[in-house]
Every structure is written in structure tokens, then in C-alpha cells.
Amino acid sequence: MMGASIEETLELWASSLRDVKARIRPLFTQERVAASAGLFLDGLLGDERRKTGWMRAEAAGDPGPWRQQAVLGRGRWDADALRDIVRDYVVETLAADDAVLVLDETGFLKQGKASCGVARQYTGSAGKITNCQIGVFAAYVSRHGHAFIDRALYLPKAWTQHGVRMAAAHVPPETDFATKPRLALGMIERAMRAEVPFAWVAADSVYGVGDIESALRRAGKGYVLGVNANHYFGSWHGKRPVAGTAEAIAHELDASAWQRLSAGEGTKGARLHDWAYCELADLDAAEYHEDRSGLWTRGLLIRRTIADGDLAFFSTWCPAGTGIATLVTIEGASLGDRRQLRNRQERIGPRPQ
Predict the structure, then answer these.
(1) What are the extents of the domains in the chain?
(2) Model pTM greater than 0.70?
(3) pLDDT band for position 344 (cuts 50, 70, 90)
């Protein structure tokens, strides 16, 4: 709020928080449980770095953590209904037709073996294989701001193939194994069914090929999706001849193909990288959905770090005529958002489903 006093800003925050609590109140059948849920929300928004049960209880004035633990572990309420309330609130506040849906995952480090979905698996949070849970998240990013709108807990096969373990963790018996891309695709489909306005999807290489690409083309959504260095690309339909792995194509580009562009503002100023973009083909949208029309361009976007020349690669799909600056903005905005989201996810954590 430009020009607003501290008092006015605090009142706006307080009013907005009261509104949020009023929206979630119908999820809880008892007033005391709703009150504990409100205090839990207050605790999450507090400035403590680690949100342990005892810390939240102390902030709420409770004698111990059991009241708020009851909300998470023993209370009966619809977590998916809460997800939808959050999504609708985000859309009301941040909606824009050119918004980006950012897909990402993060790990939550654990010590024991009882937490739902916990296993030894790789997480970027630690940069190694370690004992953790993995949460897959969708964030809505527009020029107005960014916020979560969906989440899912990844369950390794070691869990979904172990009925006794699943039952002990209160996982619904009909839950089957789902890959991370499949979980992300479910989030995209839920967003579209709810008529969430967005034009783009951005994600890293875990989600960059396969069903997600096909679904987005059918839906008329653009994307900037990470791919591995050995992913094969080839041009056709009159475009400049390009064929080979993403890494090989990058090394064969002329120096004139690279542009130094900002991927958005970071904590230390503009995030500058060198970028190159190869248009591979112009295709009619009707090839993917009979109700759609117009030319769309399939492409390869390459990012090179200035300091060490490290390369990253992205499969792109966009309306014909879209320039490299727009694609860099999509990936740059999502990159910055993913970094901030990881920090928040590590503090909050996913709710088991």
C-alpha cells in the first residue's frame, strides 16, 4: 500500500485474516476446533523460523500443543475443500489472464519412518538422497503476486505396495502409486476445471516431457518446461535446421544467437543470464484440439549462467510470434517464485492425504 500508514496496513492485514478465518470456519463442526485452527494459522504467519507444536502453542497461549495437533491429526475436516477455498481466494485477489501456473516439489526432512510417504529419496532441499517426504505444489503467479493453489504428497511405491503401512498412516485404501508428473497433471486439470485464469505453465525437468506437454497443447496453454541435457530436439516445417540433444544444439550455436536478458529482479538486483531460443516448428492448434485454431510454435529455450557457463534447457510451446523476452520472463518469474516457495514449503510442510 503506497502511502499507507503502519496502522492502516496492520488493519488491512487483520481484516484480511479475519476474512480468511470466516471462509474456512464451515469446515469445522465445533467452535473450539475452529478456534484452534485459527490459532494454528496465526502461528504459521508468525516470525518463528521453525514452527514446532510447542512454539505454536506458546504463541497461541495454550498449555501444550495438543489442541492444535488435534486439528491436524485427530480432527475430521475436508482438506480438499480447504484447498478449493484457498484457490478461490487467490483467484479473487491475483487473477490475470496471462498468469503462470508454476509446478514444483520440495522435500521435508524427517528422522523416523512413520510419517506418511517418508523414504530415502532425492530432494533438492538437501541436494542429496536422504530420509524425507516429498510434496508437489502448484503456485499461481501473476503481475499481482503469487500464492499456492494446490498440493499433493508423493507416495513412493514402497508405501503404495504396503497395505498395512498405508492403513497405519490413514491413507485412503483406494490410493494408487502416482508419479510426480501425474500428480502435477492432476493439479493442472483441477485448475482448468475450476476455470482458474492462466496462460502459461512453468516447471523444472521432472515435469518437462510426456503427458503434461500433450495436455497443455490440447488446452491451448503455453509452457516453458525444463528438460534434461540429453533430450532430443529437431526442427521441421521450414524452420532453421536443428537436430540433436539440447546440449549439442547449445554448443553449436553461433555467438550471435545468444542474448543477455534479465530473468527478473532478485534480492541482489537483476538476474542476468545469456539466453538462446530456437524455433523448431509452427503447428496448427487444431492438430491437438478440433475447437482450437491458430499457429503455435514449438521451441527450445536455453539459459547459460554468466559466471560458469552452466546450461539449462526448456521445451516451449507458445503462440506464433512470441518473442524470447516473453519466454525468459515466464521462466524467470517462475524461477524466482520457486525459490521463494521452497522456503515457505520447508517452513509449513504438506498435509498427508
Answers:
(1) 6-73, 97-208+339-348, 220-336
(2) yes
(3) low
